[in-house]
Amino acid sequence: MATTQSAGSPWWDRDTTPGYILLTATIISFLLLNAPFGHALHEVLEHPFGTVGIGEGAHPLNLHLVINDGLMVIFFLFVGLELKRETVEGPFKNPREAALPMAGALGGMAAPALIYVALTAHEPAFLRGWAIPAATDIAFALGVLSLLGPRVPGGLRLFLLALAIIDDLGAILVIALFYSTHLLGWALGGAAVTFLVMLMMNRGGVTNLLWYWLLGLVLWGFMLLSGVHATIAGVLTALAVPMRDAAGKSPLISAEHTLKPWVQLAIMPIFALVNAGVVLNGAGFDTLLHPIAAGIALGLVLGKPLGITLATYLAATLLKQRTPARFAQMLGMAMLAGIGFTMSLFVGNLAFGMGDLATPVRFGVLGGSLASAVLGLLVLWYFTRGQSRHHATLTPEEELAEARGVLEDIDAPPKP
User: Which of 64, 86, 195, 197, by CA, is between 20 and 30 Å from 204?
Assistant: First the structure.
């Protein structure tokens, strides 16, 4: 979980930093791919320098595979650690507290998918990308929200964080269920046995993280061969990491904080550098209006805010709960959730690869994410004018909550 850092924090520890770095990496990727040597760069990324795996599970080994199936495992490990912490000791352990962001996340995944399907149903081959606009990029969304400072209600920021985390869980399940191909039974069996051993280590009180990382590497190897996307190994490894040791310390929170700068400042920018660029040569209005590009962009810009807002207010009415902010502020937050970027690009790559359809995918993701960021920022800026700045006191409370791994009961004194 990212917290709102004060202006005196180091630049690398501020909420806005990951977003700025991702934006810079995207611009560099765009410039590189449209440079005279852009085609050569693509060839370098795709050039095989060996194979990984055996038999039917063999894959050509290239830089693109190393980044998307290797480095991104660490990204999913980080997301998995965050999900487990929020479920075990955070607000998700209380079903009532988790109900509103969960409803919002489900609505925010369903509506964009329906819009995409409606615009691409005439071409069955395009339907494989239905999940592309269903994801939210936590780093970018929180980074844009932080530009408004303490005028944003603290509950709204935590709601966006919770919604984005549940959204990530949904994306992980979608990848596992719908983007796995050519399943190999023996490799799946090896992965299952490895994961079982890791769970037994957890139950047996093993807290040395080195053993989990070593077995996680084995699990990744089996997943890569099995046909289930290898990044799922990161999530499963996170689920096996112990939350607390006998002394009450948290190996999981320690691992999460260690991985956080590497994920946000290195792995995500590298992924963006390789996957976010759009080749303009030959791209015209037909590309901008391509059903895939239009489906993704409209799914992010319209589907996300509509789905999140309607589902959240429906759940609030049924459960007789108050929303964390006024309607207009909730709508602005829901617009920011339309910033898909990292996860949307990742799913787009799984759906269509690096072929001809990669360009409309990137146009849709980048265009939809940019429009969502601008619209969400403008709506929140307008409807938080004159907002009391007492929300600035949320920062130390959030930092205490993160240190303890607990979001509720933040006024209670820390445990000895």
Answer: 86
Radius of gyration for the alpha carbons in the chain, expressed in angstroms and rounded: 21
Q: Which residues pair with 43 in a beta bridge?
A: none
Calpha distance 163→171 (Å, rounded): 12
H-helix or E-strand spanning residue 104? helix 95-120
Question: Helices (H) and strands (E) in the chain — how many of each?
Answer: 19, 2
* Eight-class DSSP state of 60: E
How far, in Å, CA of 369 to CA of 263, rounded? 20
pLDDT digit string, tens, across residues 178-233: 887 777 888 899 999 999 999 999 999 999 999 999 999 999 999 888 878 788 89
How many angstroms from the chain centroid is the CA of residue 264?
A: 11
Q: How far is CA 411 from CA 88, 193, 276, in A?
A: 19, 43, 42
Closest CA to 286 of 234, 232, 356, 236: 356
Torsion of CA 119, 29, 268, 299, to 10 degrees: -10
For residue 52, what are the β-bridge partners? 59
- Give pLDDT, residue 212: 96
CA 404/CA 256 separation, integer angstroms: 13
In this predicted structure, the answer to whether residue 283 has a pLDDT above a threshold of 60 is no
Asked if the model's pLDDT at residue 273 lies above 50, the reply is yes
- Domains of the chain by start residue, with CATH: 16-389 (1.20.1530.10)
* Residue 150: how many other CB atoms lie within 10 Å: 19
Exposed (0-12), middle (13-18) or buried (19+): which is 53, by Cβ within 10 Å? middle
Q: What H or E segment, with its residue span, contains residue 319?
A: helix 304-319
DSSP 127: G
- How high is the pLDDT of residue 226? 84
How much is the pLDDT for 405? 45
pLDDT of residue 1: 40
Q: What is the mean pLDDT of residues 63-81?
A: 85
Confidence of residue 15 (pLDDT cuts 50, 70, 90): low
Residue 261: φ, ψ to 5°? -65, -35
Smallest CA-to-CA distance from 324 within 91, 151, 153, 167 is with 153
Question: Taking 90 as the threshold, does the pLDDT of residue 90 lie above it?
Answer: no
User: In sequence order, which residues have a C-beta less than 8 Å from that of residue 61 and are 6 or more positions away?
Assistant: 48, 49, 50, 51, 52
